[in-house]
Amino acid sequence: MPDADLDRQRAAARAAHADAFGPGPTWAAYAPGRVNLIGDHTDYTGGWVLPMTIHRGTHAVARARTDGTVRAVAEGYGTAAPLRLGEPVGDRPLWQRYVLGVAREVAARADGPPGGADVLTTGDMPIGAGLSSSASLAVAVGLALAAAWDVEIGETEMALLAQHVEHVDAGVNCGIMDQVAVRSGRAGHAVLLDCRSLAHRAVPVPTDRAAVVIVDSGVGRSLAGSAYNERRASVERAAEVLAERGVAGPDGAPVASLRDVTAADLDAHADALGDLLPRARHVVTENARAVAAADALAAGDVAEVGRRMAGSHASLRDDYDVSGPELDRLVALAHAAGSFGSRLTGAGFGGCTVNLVRPDRVEAWTAAVREGYRRETGRDADVFVVRQNREAGVAAPGDPA
Ligand code: GLA
Description:
Elements: H1 4-21, E1 27-36, E2 48-49, E3 51-64, E4 69-74, E5 78-79, E6 83-84, H2 94-108, E7 116-123, H3 133-148, H4 155-170, H5 177-184, E8 189-194, E9 200-204, E10 211-216, H6 224-244, H7 263-268, H8 270-273, H9 276-298, H10 302-318, H11 325-336, E11 341-344, E12 352-357, H12 362-377, E13 382-385, E14 393-395
Parallel strand pairs: 4-7
Antiparallel strand pairs: 1-3, 1-14, 2-8, 3-7, 4-5, 4-6, 8-9, 10-12, 10-13, 11-12
Helix pairs in contact: 2-3, 2-4, 3-4, 3-5, 4-5, 6-9, 9-10, 11-12
This protein binds alpha-D-galactopyranose.
């Protein structure tokens, strides 16, 4: 489908690359951000998630070099000191660790040692708002460098590569939802992803019945890293406790994650789980909600999707304890203004809510939510409708724009 906006952005990104590094042919990759409709804090326990891409994202423009160095510029952030491939990425500013960490990983998959590259990144993602700006950056850079160095990297491998960089270079023990959504999301569809097998299926989103609306609370997520890693550790511990108690999965082996745990298992071992019980209960119930919501979405039953979203928010707030006063206000205001569903999206601790709203009600709904949020919190909320959900891809030198 022609996408004039994206072509214009790509042309501007290439022009910025020429300004930074001089004229010449370039590979220009794009990776969108994502919003998660339902299924949060389930991916790192091998569970179910239902994200979709959005129309905001990251462009990465690359040209190969021959001297073994990677030079990087990020519009709005600055210029990295050149890195010789093979040298450690080290303790650089976060954006550089993503770009140079991805370069190291793509280079490791090349046949011979690649000769280096000049990379420029730019985009229109809100950073740290829970819309996967970092996965978008990592996948865009990965696509651009793989093309510039002629390295074959499949979609799932690219997602895993970007996740690895998040773990080792950024220090966040994230799951795989964001990277798969960003790399493999398809226009007009959400992705129902089984985070254990990484099998996924595209589920049509009936935007004629419900607009997908994102509301940014404006509350940053500076503590997200440590609190996130702590939540992950607690549900891994919960699975160990259940395995020690003899809880087995369908194959008869002790459970390796909460994926195979049932509500009845949690009840039976509540005493052993102690404080871990609400955390584990969130994961178990959220998996069921995500699968049910995907079925409802596929059937066009947006009211049912909305009910599951409401259950998800309550569980993230009460059992998983990753919401906050601003996100809870936004969800309450969304319901009061009339939506099918509303919930925090992504890791929580600030960031955004995702909402399903009747298309002819979006304007009035937006005004009511913005007004109420300002009145109740003194803050401005950024509200935007997902206009289209873009796909990741790469344009060769000479391709349009
Ligand atoms: C962040 C992580 C994901 C996922 C979500 C919560 O976005 O990067 O892997 O765990 O939080 O669902």
